[in-house]
Fold this protein.
Amino acid sequence: MAGKGVFKDMIDGEVYKYYADGEWKRSASGGTVSILNPSTRKPQYKVQACTQDEVNKIFDSAKAAQKLWAKTPLWKRAEALHRAAAILKENKVAIAEALVKEVAKPQKDAVTEVVRSGDLISYTAEEGIRILSEGKFLVSDSFPGNDRNKLCMSSKIPLGVVLAIPPFNYPVNLAVSKIGPALIAGNALVLKPPTQGAVSCLHMVHCFHLAGFPKGLISAVTGKGSEIGDFLTMHPMVNCISFTGGDTGIAIARKASMIPLQMELGGKDACIVLEDADLDLAASNIVKGGYSYSGQRCTAVKVVLAFESIADMLVAKVNAKIAKLTVGPPEEDSDITPVVSESSANFIEGLVKDAREKGAKFHQEWKRDGNLIWPVLIDHVRPDMRIAWEEPFGPVLPVIRIKTVEEGIHHCNANNFGLQGCVFTKDINKAIMIADAMETGTVQINSAPARGPDHFPFQGIRDSGIGSQGITNSINMMTKIKSTVINLPGASYQMG
C-alpha cells in the first residue's frame, strides 16, 4: 500500500483537494492557497480555498456521522484506529517528503514524526478502551440524611464535534494527538491544517480514509484564515476546540462559545544551571533543547539562566557543540534548516539586533541567508533586552547570568509564558524545591524540556495555554460525564 500512488486521489492537477463526506473534493470557490518551500522561498504546493458554505456542509455531515459513531462499540473504534496507524507508518516516506518540502524538517526527523504519530494512534486506541469502558457506581446512603434508595451510574460520553487546529512545526504528530482521542471517545473530527504543513496533514488524513472510517466522521478543510478562520472557531456546531500554536489561540479563546478548550500556545522555557551541575550534561541538553529543528519548538530551551561562577565554562562547552552543528537544506539532514517563513526570520533578526544594540555578547557571527539562520548563542543578556522575554522560535539562544537561585526563579516566573522549564543540579533536594517554585506546566530535572512521551500530561499556565494534553487527559477532556439515577421503591432501612 505504501507509495505516492496511494495518494493520487488527493490531487487535482497541482492542487490538493479538501476532504469531506469520505471524498476528496475541489472547492466551489475555484481559489487556492499557495504554500512556499521555506528553503527555496518559492511555491511548492497549492491547496483548496474552501468557502463558508462548504464548512457548513462539513459540520452537518460531521454531526450526523457522530451520532452513529457514538453507538459503535469501543473495540471497533479501536480497530479502525489501529488500521490508520499501520497505514500511516507504511507511508512514512511519502509523508516525510511533504514535511521536508513545506516545513523544512530534516528528513530523519520527518520520518520519526510520522512513526511517532502512528505509535500515538495505537496507544490512544488501547488507552481509550481502558478509560471509556470504566464507569462509576454510587449509592445514595453515603451522603448524610439519605437512605439507600437511589443508585447512580456515571459514564463518559462524547462531546460531539471536535475542531482540531495543529501548528506548522509538528503538523502530523500534533494533529493525530487531537484526532486519536477525539475519535476513540466517539466524537466527529473537523481538522483545519496550518497553511505550512497542510499537505502533510492531508496525507495523514488520507491514511484515516484508507482505514475505512465512516463518511463524514473526519473532515479536513483548507483555506484562507480571513475567510474561514473565525467562521470555523465560532461555528455553533463546534463542541470542543483543540488548538496548538501561537497568539491566535488567545484570540480563539476569547471568541469561542461555552465549550471545552484545549490550548497549547507559546513558551519561553527557562533552563536554570546551578553551580554543582554536570556541565557536560547541561551543555548537551541546552544544544539539543535549544537548536533541534532550528529552535522551532514550543518546548525548546528559550533562555539559559546560569550561575556566574560556572557560566564561562558552560558557555564554552555549549559553543563547542554549536560549532559542530551542520547548517543547510533539510534534504541533507542538516541540524539547522531554514525557519518556516521570511516573516519569522525577520522577527528573529529583530530580536538579535535589539540585543546587539544593547550590548549583549555574541559568540558566533550573525549570519542569515533568506530563511536560513546560523545558530547563535547570545551571552550577557539583560532583562531590558527583548530576547530575554520574547520567544524567537529560531536557532537563537540567550544566556542570562544569575547570582542566586531566587534570581533564576524570578525570571522564569515573571514571563508571560509558563509552558516548561528545566533545572540542572546534582542535589535532588534543590532540584525538587526549585521545580516546585517554578510556575510552569512541566519541569524537567537534568534534561531539556520535551513534550513526550505522548501519554505524559502536557500543559502550560498563563499565556502558554488552557487545559492539559497527553493521551489520557485529551480523552477525558473530549468527553463529559453522564449520570443515570435509578430510584428504588420500598422501605428505607434504619439502625436500631
Observations:
- Residues 269-445 form a domain with the Aldehyde Dehydrogenase; Chain A, domain 2 fold (CATH 3.40.309.10).
- The chain has a mean pLDDT of 94.
- The chain has two domains: 4-265+468-481, 269-445.
